[in-house]
Amino acid sequence: MHKTLLAGAVIAMFSGQAAAQSWVLTDTQGTEKGDWRIDSRQLKLSGEPFTLEQQVLHGGKQEGSKVLTLTSKNGLTIALSPTRGMDLLHVNGHGVRLGWDSPVDEVVNPAYINLESRNGLGWLEGFNEMMVRCGFEWTGHPVTKDGRIYTLHGKAGNTPASKVEVIVDDQAPHEIRIRGLLKENTFKKARLETWTELRYVPGADSFTLHDVLTNQADYPHDYEIIYHSNFSTPILEENARFLAPVKSVSPFNDYAKKGLENWQTYGAPTKDFDEMVFNLQPIADSNGKTVAAVVNSKGDKGAAIEFDTRQLPVLTMWKNTDTLKQGYVTGIEPGTNYAYPVTIEKEQGRVKQLQPGQSAEFTLTYSLLKDASAVQKVEERIKTLQGETKINVEQTPIAVE
Amino acid sequence: MHKTLLAGAVIAMFSGQAAAQSWVLTDTQGTEKGDWRIDSRQLKLSGEPFTLEQQVLHGGKQEGSKVLTLTSKNGLTIALSPTRGMDLLHVNGHGVRLGWDSPVDEVVNPAYINLESRNGLGWLEGFNEMMVRCGFEWTGHPVTKDGRIYTLHGKAGNTPASKVEVIVDDQAPHEIRIRGLLKENTFKKARLETWTELRYVPGADSFTLHDVLTNQADYPHDYEIIYHSNFSTPILEENARFLAPVKSVSPFNDYAKKGLENWQTYGAPTKDFDEMVFNLQPIADSNGKTVAAVVNSKGDKGAAIEFDTRQLPVLTMWKNTDTLKQGYVTGIEPGTNYAYPVTIEKEQGRVKQLQPGQSAEFTLTYSLLKDASAVQKVEERIKTLQGETKINVEQTPIAVE
Amino acid sequence: MHKTLLAGAVIAMFSGQAAAQSWVLTDTQGTEKGDWRIDSRQLKLSGEPFTLEQQVLHGGKQEGSKVLTLTSKNGLTIALSPTRGMDLLHVNGHGVRLGWDSPVDEVVNPAYINLESRNGLGWLEGFNEMMVRCGFEWTGHPVTKDGRIYTLHGKAGNTPASKVEVIVDDQAPHEIRIRGLLKENTFKKARLETWTELRYVPGADSFTLHDVLTNQADYPHDYEIIYHSNFSTPILEENARFLAPVKSVSPFNDYAKKGLENWQTYGAPTKDFDEMVFNLQPIADSNGKTVAAVVNSKGDKGAAIEFDTRQLPVLTMWKNTDTLKQGYVTGIEPGTNYAYPVTIEKEQGRVKQLQPGQSAEFTLTYSLLKDASAVQKVEERIKTLQGETKINVEQTPIAVE
């Protein structure tokens, strides 16, 4: 049930006892808000103050790109872009930044990107997010099959959201939900629709992504998804550590073999390092839940991602500790897949499929670890999950591109 | 002669005794109207009331797309998109809809389409029109020749109109003309300009397209055009029929061979049907005129297209009676060509050419058949045109892609 | 040092004794001006009156393109497009036009261009400038290497400027500077940033381009640049002449061999002429400066480009004296390179490289030659530079594509 409370924007939704106000920022059926702003004071909500603000960017290749920023004074500031598939640009709180500095310093409007350029690497002309969804039609490194390029990491991250809405719970602690609908619809080829959702309680140090991918077609459709989550300074630094409970690790390719020995430790920005990628099989608890994290050298800052291995069975760790100007960054990438081309992933049986009308859900909780205590808590949980299991360090890549 | 009557928009044009008001909605030389509206009441015109309204769409990949809608209360409502080559989106009247439901449910701005993607099938990411011009540099299925992709169905349907104007006849019955200029101009490659025109008399059940393609270059230039006209429910249904006077029918490919027996009858939405395509040679009257139609099972609803075989000598019938969600639809496609790749069409001599400065005209009248009487009238005309001519049912495709 | 004088736009800059006002028209960090205008009267500046005006264009494929026009009543009118890489569209003064009439008659927004289309010739769908920067990642004819297309003339000319500012000197003669920042930034591939600058003193018949290209990456990066400068009527005509002091001329390909005999003289618009290209080695003075020009038959109109052979060692002369409708035009193209594909240029050692953080500067002065005296002056300078040096006319192209 929907009931309009105020002209234009505010709607109350009652589902059981829950009541909330909501704002439609974009709707292909009619609504479009450009620059827009609400805040807790104006809404007369008590508790942790927050602001939600949308801006339309201009200049360069970001002409027309929208950025929606959720600011919580004592918690996190989260910036995402509806124009770029609801990707998370960066998150800040307690002096810690989740995100990185890409040479791409604009929020590039997909209208200016040709994903097929550079032999399928056009995605790199817009890549600078803290979290970009790599999917859903396909993901992974580009490959040409039967004359067709499966471009790097798919199209979701460069798909403007067809619908964007913000929902604020009437009841304390006034959870905020930012929802966006991504359509990968092509006649005869795909009808994959994803409702992305970000949930945040003002003042908290964590937020949750809850995405629902539905195959709206009448035929089964393959899908792949990697949550490409990227962190740099001030967390990433010399002797920063990667933490995750894993059964096995294998090098993505020959170059990564050289980094196997200390794969869980990061180096300082290093010229000619380029990137090493490691394929991981995570260990989960009895509910399928696991967590991976990157923490700084001192162990008093970090980022953790909790995810569900029933939804996202594998984990890619991307060590791109090249120089700062090249984009010093590490990726923690829960996925249905590794980053091999879709042809290899298919061959090796990791590509999933949705039946007609079927949905897949993905729930990930991102935490900013603001101090030693927060880091320690995650580290202990990971230790517990690892338990007595020895990490099987495989020396040979499972595939060759 | 042009004379400004009112500031800004209204111009009187006198050509012989004809006088009309006109509005320029888009002109690369200066004018640009976004949201815009006129109606017969405001213009103080008697007779059938009408409204003309332009809207700029937002959200998803339709950001910035314009839709111009002509509404005639007792006749038709016609929606077209200047941003998408003056394509007709859908037409409605008397409870009948001309058009279909594509999985692509946005009016996709060509800025978000890469026609070369998917090995030349990028056009499918925007395809949902009731009528899309497939041409004019080339049309048909994609083919790569000398490293270059001739993309599916050419560029016209994804070319934003450079000039758009609306003209309303001063005299009853106040015929409305909507004109749009499409430029396929590329240095050293093409200078093909098309003035598209839609003519409609408020209250009528028919409208006419009158397009003039001109080769503005100093060299001869090949062209191809298919008027890809698409119909679904409530006309298309089990036992709906395709009607046209034809000399011959041949299957487009091996799969269509299986459908030759009952090629003129449609099935209900059928899983795994995919599409069958039939190449037809229409029979025309002494003036070159012919007509093709699709009518529902009961014979009381339909759509007919009258065209000129001197302009558009061949006819493609596209039977895409797959499930509703996949886009249950049939195409009636008068053209200079069949839908084979341009290389094959060229080889088989169907590709036309324009000399420098030469124009080609295309006139098609679309009728919404609202009742049994309207259907019967078209059916009788087709019967007459067919006369004693027996349909030559060829068993073998004339070409292999 | 920056100091705000007036709210919003006007800033005074003091560097030594120089003071100026400046306006930011575009800045990805926040500022965006659409339609905008200033003039010398409003600024209360004495001397030659001038106007600076920005317009946002609409319609066709120029939707959203910006054009910035500098008008000096007694000097030049210079139009450039921030959306198209600060390219110069056309320059007019004293009844002489620098520029040409391309079949592409819109200022095409790069959002509507796929540079990879037509097997790497997509650039031709937007080409109509008086001066377009061909670079900087690569330039020249397209070539596919390792599955990747190096598209015709690179991306700079189709890169919307990330920052645009206008600076007007406080002191007479109130030199105007129009600056634009182009970013060719792609993760792992390039971090080339170019500050383009156009300097013009109101009333003058010349303007200067001063571009600074910087490799912002931590690795060396190749670059190429050709200043593709194009002239037509009223300068180009039968018996118009190309003037430049050169050591040698060689035909670009076999077709150009046929034109070697009278390579410095132009024909009237000629059907089937297509294009001939000549590679030239310019002779410079002791400071590296040289000049090339095209002058009309009578020798009383022309265009000259002064450039620095230490920055731009080679010169391409493009003779495209086909018919008017095809784009009757000649290109005078100082560059680091000839127009061969980057693979050939690399092989033959003409591709330059920038070390991390290193910059390259390019300074070119364009002059409109308004009368016989202006033409004569340039001709004499060229004669002096040529001196006793005989032109080595090579018969064989130095490379085969």
From TrEMBL, chains A, B, C:
<dbReference type="InterPro" id="IPR027839">
    <property type="entry name" value="DUF4432"/>
</dbReference>
<dbReference type="Pfam" id="PF14486">
    <property type="entry name" value="DUF4432"/>
</dbReference>
<dbReference type="InterPro" id="IPR014718">
    <property type="entry name" value="GH-type_carb-bd"/>
</dbReference>
<protein>
    <submittedName>
        <fullName>Aldose 1-epimerase family protein</fullName>
    </submittedName>
</protein>
<keyword id="KW-0732">Signal</keyword>
<feature type="signal peptide">
    <location>
        <begin position="1"/>
        <end position="20"/>
    </location>
</feature>
